[in-house]
Amino acid sequence: MRNELSAGLLAEIPFASSKYLYDVLGSKLFEAICELPEYYPTRTEAAIFSRHLPDIARSVEPGSILIDLGAGNCAKAARMFSFLHPSEYVAIDISVDFLQESVTCLQSRFPQIKMTGVGMDFSSALSLPAEIGHDRRLFFYPGSSIGNYTPEQATVFLARIREACRNDGGLLIGVDLVKDTHVLNAAYDDALGLTGAFNLNLLVHLNNLLGANFDPREWRHRAFFNERKSRIEMHLEARRDIDVKWSQGHRHFREGQRIHTENSYKYTQDSFRQLLARAGFADARTWTDERGWFMVCHARA
Ligand code: AVI
Fold it and tell me: Which residues form a coiled coil (predicted)?
């Protein structure tokens, strides 16, 4: 982890992986972002689910093992239980302590469903616990987190899920769609500055992880839609010339120089269907909101 981070900071175009945005404070800031008026994805996806859940449930066929990728507090999956009637629930998240608490709490509400919490960084490999049953598998990946991978990485990741679906499973996924640039830019550069704090907090996290001496006050949040690449880019920009030191290295950042911290790709319905096909999925049913801002997709293996 330290080597990866240090190499990113020393690269010609400096970068830090967006997974380092999520320390304890970063996760709380992200939860707060989801409540912002400008940050439409969470609320738009929730509206699609609440409006179309009966239809979605018919499409996925109840009684599957529900495998929740990035489960967190398990709230999104829990809302689906009474429609999907999963035979089993497997919650996977990198932050295992928080996950176990959520699963224990959920188990007391749904004692009839077998539940397992698994601590795993599923972005690099997906190994399911050996003791899960043999029913059909339904992977659940809401929130448009797929947008934080490049399309190439997303194809590899989805192909891994397709493989784990075996021949009869599927994937229920939330995907953010291309829309008016002003709407996109406002969602990632909100008036209250919460997304800025979320981005700058990465420097505090790097100070802890690397023993670095970043001063967040010397950096500025930048977020904008890159139309050619169909992605929001987040960067941290040096407000003046800055020397930064950390345990394995040091670097001089010129005024205006940036550290690239996140990409959030936006798809069209067609481009995402093509990506699913490249990953080996056979077909997909989709549901969107009235404005066509977000899409929920059920892809069959
Ligand atoms: C977690 N992920 C889907 C969010 C997104 O929209 O790409 C992360 C985020 N970054 C800034 N705001 C929210």
Answer: none
Tokens of 281: 């999925």
Q: What is the per-residue pLDDT across 80-136, written as a single tens digit (0 to 9) for each?
A: 998 999 999 999 998 888 899 999 999 999 999 999 999 998 988 898 988 999 999
State which ligand 1 atom lies nearest to the alpha carbon of 145.
3
Whose structure tokens read 């969107």?
288
First to last CA, the chain: 34
Residues with C-beta less than 6 Å from any ligand 1 atom: 33, 41, 143-145, 147-148, 188, 195, 262, 264
Instruction: Give residue 264 CA to ligand 1 midpoint distance, Å.
Output: 7
Query: Is the pTM above the cut of 0.90?
Result: yes
- How many whole angstroms separate alpha carbon 246 and alpha carbon 211? 5
What SS3 class is residue 260? strand
Q: What angle do CA 18, 23, 25 make, to 5 degrees?
A: 115
Residue type, 250: H
Q: Specify the ligand 1 atom closest to the Cα of 264.
A: 7
State both tokens at 67.
Answer: 């495998």
Pair 94, 126: CB distance under 8 Å: no
Q: How many CB atoms lie within 10 A of CB 182?
A: 9
SS3 category, 41: helix
Candidates 265, 296, 22, 3; CA nearest to 147 is: 265
